[in-house]
Specification:
This protein has 241 residues and is α+β, with helices and mostly antiparallel strands. The protein has helices at 5-12, 27-30, 41-54, 130-136, 144-150, 176-179, and strands spanning 57-68, 73-84, 90-97, 101-106, 109-114, 119-124, 151-161, 164-173, 182-189, 196-203, 208-218, 236-239. It is 18% helix and 42% strand. Strand 5 (109-114) and strand 6 form a beta hairpin. 32% of the residues are buried.
Length: 241
């Protein structure tokens, strides 16, 4: 049940944030009239910066799909994501299908709880704090300065996604250690919330990961109790690094 380095990295890529469906609470703070003139990369990044400055919390329904190209295998997990912005951001992902699993990122640590075997695997991320910004929080309140410091950013124009023309940014990693693992990322940005509706991570191997979000709630109170793993009595803790 050990979480491999590849799967841990995949877990770290879970978080980007998402569209604002009609009728969503909190839409008044972030929703704007959809643009009527062609956008530039500068326009998109400017809107994302405005949103990043106001973003405090997010909760959302999450669909996460990993694709192994060589064997044409697709594996999809479904669950919920909770995020609280801060000097040390907190993120909890609770998968419900096909298997129950909880992933918590807090204070430069990652914990993965497997209820079926009642075990929590612990990972120390102190030396890799940059992973949270480069992957987990990519587009999730990320400022354009941080984004352009790690990626070459190219605007691919608008493409249809779930019936909406959606601006797409292509991010190509600049650091060699990141580029060795990740060839590019496509961020599909909501023209209303200016947060990602979908993230597509393409690995150097050709495999890719897709994170899609819906039913989002923005800046609603998320107390400390949200960012705790509620394990069964007698849980086993295993340090993985």
């Amino acid at each position: 049940m050990k979480l491999s380095a590849v799967r841990l990295r995949a877990a770290l890529m879970l978080a980007g944030i998402m569209a604002l469906p009609a009728g969503l609470r909190g839409a008044g703070m972030f929703g704007r009239a959809v643009h009527r003139v062609p956008l530039t990369v500068g326009d998109v990044l400017s809107h994302m910066d405005d949103t990043a400055r106001r973003l405090k919390t997010v909760s959302a329904h999450l669909t996460y799909t990993t694709v192994t190209v060589l064997v044409n295998d697709r594996a999809t997990q479904v669950g919920a994501l909770f995020f609280r912005k801060g000097r040390r951001p907190e993120v909890l992902v609770r998968f419900s299908k096909p298997d129950t699993k909880v992933i918590l990122f807090k204070k430069n640590r990652a914990e993965v709880y497997y209820p079926r075997i009642n075990q929590i695997q612990e990972y120390d991320l102190e030396r890799r704090r940059d992973l949270l910004q480069q992957f987990l929080l990519l587009g999730f309140g990320t400022g354009s300065g941080a984004l352009e410091g790690t990626y070459h950013v190219r605007y691919l124009g608008e493409k249809p996604l779930h019936g909406t023309m959606t601006p797409v940014l292509e991010l190509t990693p600049i650091p060699k250690d990141v580029a060795a693992q990740l060839s590019k990322v496509d961020l599909w940005i909501s023209p209303q919330s200016w947060l990602p509706v979908q993230q597509e991570f393409f690995e150097a191997s050709g495999d890719y990961l897709i994170a899609s979000y819906s039913q989002m709630r923005i800046n609603e109170p998320l107390g400390p109790s949200v960012f705790k793993i509620r394990a069964k009595h007698g849980v086993e803790r295993v340090k993985m690094n």
